[in-house]
């Protein structure tokens, strides 16, 4: 096929961007291209076994694997581009804390366009989930490592020049719906109570 490329289409831009991560409304050019070519992008991604999700209310778009039960005949043989990864306890704790911060931000109806949290504030909340850990330096180190991991997953990104400020990305809201958030919160509280009981018995 050397030198014999198919004709360029505008939808190639958002299609590749989606394979790289999340598209947000703030990315004006690629967002507009996606909305005006959504059918072509959706069909292209479907051939890869991927489902296009566009949430215009939240201003974001991303792709996910089709559920196994929804795949047409033959598609189950396509290698998965994205592998579901189970979050660790710490990653789940942080995801829930960030999702709660985003919920409070939206309920406050501020004029700020982005939900930004300070690492120091997160640390105070983070501590309560690790009652058996008394070393604050280690807690802070673990929190930062977990923030870096969630940054890789696209849930947060560093904000501004201050290294301790993090923007909570709205894709977290799509990944952790209200029902999932409530369920995870209950499970985490139960796990913390068990840790507290174990810690008390050891003293």
Overview of the molecule:
The chain has 8 helices and 6 strands. It has 203 residues and is an alpha+beta fold. The chain folds into 2 domains: 66 residues, Arc Repressor Mutant, subunit A, CATH 1.10.10; 114 residues, Arc Repressor Mutant, subunit A, CATH 1.10.10. The protein has a 3-stranded antiparallel β-sheet with strand order 1-3-2. A hairpin with a 4-residue loop joins β2 and β3. α1 packs across α2, α4 packs across α6 and α4 packs across α8. It starts with 11 loop residues before the first helix and ends with a helix.
Summary?
The protein contains 8 helices and 6 strands; from the N terminus they run H-E-H-H-E-E-H-E-H-H-E-E-H-H.
Instruction: Order the strands across the largest sheet as they lie in space.
Output: 1-3-2
- Count of separate DSSP helical elements: 8
Strand content range = 5-15%
SSE string, helices as H and strands as E: HEHHEEHEHHEEHH
CATH class of the largest domain: Mainly Alpha
- Unreliable segments of 5+ consecutive residues: none
The percent of residues in helical segments reads 40-55%
Radius of gyration: 20 Å
By DSSP, the count of extended strands is: 6
Q: Taking all residues together, what is the mean pLDDT? A: 84
Sheet/helix structural class: alpha+beta
Number of self-contained structural domains: 2
Fold blueprint:
Elements: H1 12-20, E1 23-24, H2 28-36, H3 38-46, E2 50-55, E3 60-65, H4 89-108, E4 115-118, H5 119-127, H6 136-152, E5 156-158, E6 165-168, H7 171-175, H8 178-202
Antiparallel strand pairs: 1-3, 2-3, 4-6, 5-6
């Amino acid at each position: 096929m050397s030198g014999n490329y198919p004709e360029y289409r505008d939808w190639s831009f958002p299609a590749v961007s989606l394979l790289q991560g999340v598209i947000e409304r703030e990315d004006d050019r690629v967002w507009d291209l996606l909305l005006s070519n959504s059918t072509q992008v959706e069909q292209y991604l479907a051939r890869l076994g991927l489902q296009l999700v566009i949430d215009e209310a939240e201003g974001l778009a991303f792709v996910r694997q089709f559920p196994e039960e929804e795949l047409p005949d033959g598609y189950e043989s396509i290698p998965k581009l994205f592998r579901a990864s189970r979050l660790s306890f710490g990653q789940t704790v942080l995801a829930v804390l960030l999702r709660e911060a985003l919920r409070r931000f939206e309920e406050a109806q501020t004029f700020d366009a982005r939900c930004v949290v300070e690492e120091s504030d997160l640390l105070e909340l983070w501590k309560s989930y690790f009652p058996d850990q008394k070393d604050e330096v280690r807690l802070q180190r673990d929190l930062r490592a977990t923030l870096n991991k969630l940054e890789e997953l696209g849930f947060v990104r560093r904000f501004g020049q201050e290294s301790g400020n993090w923007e909570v990305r709205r894709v977290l809201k799509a990944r952790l719906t209200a029902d999932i958030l409530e369920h995870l919160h209950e499970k985490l509280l139960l796990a913390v109570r068990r840790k507290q009981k174990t810690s008390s018995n050891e003293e």
